[in-house]
Amino acid sequence: MAYQITDGCVNCWACEPLCPSQAIQAAKPHFIIDPSQCSECAGDFAEPQCASICPIEGAILDASGIPMNPPGSLTGIPPERMAAARAEIRAR
Amino acid sequence: MEGGPAGGCASSSCGGSSDKLAHLPEAIRAKVNDHPCFSEDAHHHYARMHVAVAPACNIQCHYCNRKYDCSNESRPGVVSELLTPEQAVQKTLAVAAAIPQMSVLGIAGPGDPLANPERTLATFRALSEKAPDIKLCVSTNGLALPELVDEICQHNIDHVTITINCVDPEIGAKIYPWIFWNNRRIKGVKAARILIEQQQKGLAMLAERGVLVKVNSVLIPGVNDEHLKEVSRVVKAKGAFLHNVMPLIAEAEHGTFYGLMGQRGPTHDELQALQDACSGDMAMMRHCRQCRADAVGMLGEDRGAEFSVEKIGQMDIDYAAAMERRAAVHAEIEAKRQAQREASQQAVQTSGGEVFVALDSLTRRRPAAPSTEVNAMSAATSASDTTAFATHPATPLAAAQPASSRAKAKAGNASRRLRIAVASSGSGVINQHFGHAREFLVYEADAEDVRFIGTRRVQAYCTGDETCGEAESALAGTLRALEGCAAVLCSKIGIEPWDALEAAGIAPNGEHAMEPIETAVAAVYAELTASGALDQAEPMSALSA
After folding, report:
1. Do B183 and A49 touch (CB under 8 A)?
2. Last residue of a domain, one of B252, B284, B317
3. Tell me: the pLDDT tens digits for B351-394?
4. Which residues on A lie below 8 Å from B467 (Cβ)?
5. Which chain B residues are Cβ-neighbours of A41 within 8 angstroms?
C-alpha cells in the first residue's frame, strides 16, 4: 500500500520533510513517492502527512488511484466554475 | 540628532509630509533609513531583492494560487526559478555587486519562509557572514512565527513583515480555507482562529525583542474592508510600527479562488479611503509595489531576469571590492539626501518671491499677518524634529495661525486638493521620460501639504501573453491609470502623449526635470491654482498676497 504523486505536483517541497518514512524524493518533472518506503503514515500519524499539507487538488493519489484531495476540496473553487473559467480564458 | 543619517530634520522634508516615520524614536528611524520597503523616502534611493528559497506553505489564502511559475506576472507569490540557499547567497552577492544601491535582502516566498525554516535560515546565516552590510528581512503569514522568533533574532533579522488580514476568525474563514497545524489540515473558523492567535502572539514576541514589524493586509472589498480599521488598531497596540494595506489582485487567469469566483479588488479611491481611515492609528505604507517573491532592483523595477542562476554562474565578482563600493555609493546617497533636505530647508528660510520652492513656502504664503508668519516659521522649525507625522499634514503652521485665518483658509483652499502624477526613476527627483515610465507616483496636494498617496502601474500585470490583460494601446492604458490626476510631471514628453493628456484634462508638465518631487509638486499645484487653469475662480489668490 502506497500513495503516489501525479503531474499536478508543483514541486513545492511542503510534503518532503513531513514524511515519517522518508519516502518522498525531489525529482524531475515532479516529486515522487517511493512505494516501497511509503507506509501511508500508519503508526506515525492519524492522517497521512503529505496529503494533509499538499496544496494541489489531485496531486496525491491513494493506493487505488483516487485523489486524496479531490477537485474543490482545498481551494473551495467548484470544479464546474474552474472548468468554465478555463474554457473562457482559452477562447479569448 | 545631527549625527545619524536619519537624525533630526534629516528625515525628508521638515514639517512636510514625506516623512511618514518622523514620529518614531531615533533608533528606529536609523534602522529604516535605508530600507526601501519600511521607509517611503528610502525607496527613492535604495534597492532591494527577494530570493525565492521558500516554496512550501502551511496555509492556503484565497488570493493565492500555488502554481507560481509565470515569468510575466508581477505579484506576490510569483517566481520563475526556485533557488537553493547556496544559489540564493550567490545571487544576492551578485546583485549586491551589480546594483550597489542594494540595501536589503528579503525572503518572501513563494510559499511561507517560516514554513521552510531550514532553507530560509541557512540563507540568512550565510549572508550575515558574507555580506554583513545587507539588511535581512523576512515576510510570513505568522503561523510558525512564535516557535521561530528566537532563531529570527539570532540571525540579525531585524525587519519582519506579517500578513494579517483579520483579527476575527469568522472573517478569517472567508479568506483562509485551511491551515496545516500540528500535523493535520484544519479548515474553517477553527483554522482561522489558530492562525490569528499565532500571528498576534508572534507580533507581540517580536515587538518585545525590539524587532521592527510591518503588517501587510490585503484589502478585499466586502470581506475585510471595514474590519481592517480594527486590524490596524489591534496591531498597533501590539507593537507593529507600519501598516501596509494592499489592494487585492484577483483575475480569473490567476486561477485563485477570488479570481475565479469573481471577487473584485478595490478601486484606487477605496484603497486610499481605507488607508486614510487607518492612518489615524498608525503609520501607513503607501509605496508598496506588491512585488514578486524574486524581485530585484528599485521598488518600481524588476531586474530579476539579469540574474538568473545561469547568468550569475558566469559572473566573476570581487565580493570585498563590491562591499566597499556599496559603502561608497550608500555614503553618496546619504550625502545627496542630506543636500536635498538642506535645500528644502534653505528654501523655507529665503523664499519670498513668486516661485513656490518648498512645501513650507506654500504654507507660509497662507493669509496671515506678518507676525503670525514669524511664529509659523519657528513653529515649523521646532516641529520638524519632533512630531511632523505625515498624516496630519502641516500641523505646525495651522497651529500657529489664528483660528479665524485657518477657518478661512480651509473654506477657500482645503477642499481644493489635486492629484498630481510624477515620473521618477529614483533619487527622489523628477527624472523620467513620460514614455519610459512603467509606473507613476501619485501625490495629493492642497494649499498646506503634499503627500504621497500611491503608485499607478501603466503596464498590465501580464504583458507577454495574449491571455493576460486587455488588448489596448499603452497610451490609452496610461491615460486610464492617470484618471483623476490634474497634471503629470516628467523630464520629457512626446507630442502625441502631450496632446492626448491635454485632451483628457491632465496637464503635461516637463518643466521641473531634476527637481525634488515634492518641491515640484508643490510648485505645480501653485501654478495650476494661480493660473486659473482650474474651474474655480482664483482660489489661491491669497497665496500671492
Report:
1. yes
2. B317
3. 443 333 334 434 333 333 333 333 333 333 333 333 223 333 33
4. 89, 92
5. none
The helix or strand, by DSSP H or E, that contains position B347, with its residue range, turns out to be: helix B319-350
User: Across the A/B interface, how many CB contacts are shorter than 8 Å?
Assistant: 69
Which has the minimum average pLDDT: A77-81, B94-98, B455-459? B455-459
* Residue B338: burial class (beta carbons within 10 Å; 0-12, 13-18, 19+): middle
Q: Which three cell numbers stand for residue A83?
A: 472548468
| B 382-441: CB under 8 A from A | none
Whether the pLDDT of residue B236 is over 80: the answer is yes
**Percentage of chain B surpassing pLDDT 90?**
47
Looking at residue B180, what is its pLDDT?
Answer: 98
Note whether B85 contacts A: Cβ–Cβ < 8 A. Answer: no
Domain count, chain B: 2
Catalogue all structural domains in chain A, each as residue range(s) with its CATH number. 1-92 (3.30.70.20)
E strands, B394-478, in order: 418-422, 439-445, 450-457
> Are B451 and B532 in the same domain?
yes
Reported ipTM: the value is: 0.95
Query: B353 and B289, same structural domain?
Result: no
Measure the N-to-C terminal CA separation of chain A; round to a whole number of Å. 44
Residue with cell 507593537: B239
| A81: nearest CB among B184, B185, B260 | B260
B365 and B420 in a single domain? The answer is yes
| Residue of B31, B49, B42, B44 lying closest to B294 (CA atoms) | B49
CA-closest candidate to residue B42, choices B18, B9, B69: B18
How many Å apart are CA B52 and CA B55, to the nearest integer? 7
Q: Do A74 and B60 touch (CB under 8 A)?
A: yes
Please indicate whether, in this complex, the C-beta atoms of B111 and A11 are within 8 angstroms of each other. Answer: no
Mean pLDDT of B243-260: 91
In order, the DSSP letters of B142-203 are: STTHHHHHHHHHHTTEEEEEEE---S-HHHHTTT-SEEEETTEEEEHHHHHHHHHHHHHHHH
- Domain of residue B379, residue span: 334-544
Q: What is the pLDDT of residues A9-62, one digit of tens each?
A: 999 999 999 999 999 999 989 999 999 999 999 999 999 999 999 999 999 999
Q: What is the pTM of this model?
A: 0.78
Distance from CA of B254 to the nearest CA of A (A): 11
Which residues of chain B make contact with A10, given a CB cutoff of 8 A? 66-69
CATH assignment at residue B91: 3.20.20.70
Residues of chain A neighbouring B67 (CB-CB closer than 8 A): 10, 56
CA-based nearest distance B251→chain A, Å: 11
Cell 550608500 found at:
B330
Which of B257, B283, B317 is the last residue in one of the domains?
A: B317
CB contact under 8 A, B60 and A85: no
Q: Which residues contact B248 (CB under 8 A, 6 or more apart)?
A: B63, B218, B219, B220, B221, B258, B263, B264, B265, B266
> ∠ CA(A5), CA(A11), CA(A17), 5° rounding?
85
Cα–Cα distance, B104 to A79 (Å, whole number): 42
Q: Which of chain B's residues have a Cβ under 8 Å away from the Cβ of A59?
A: none
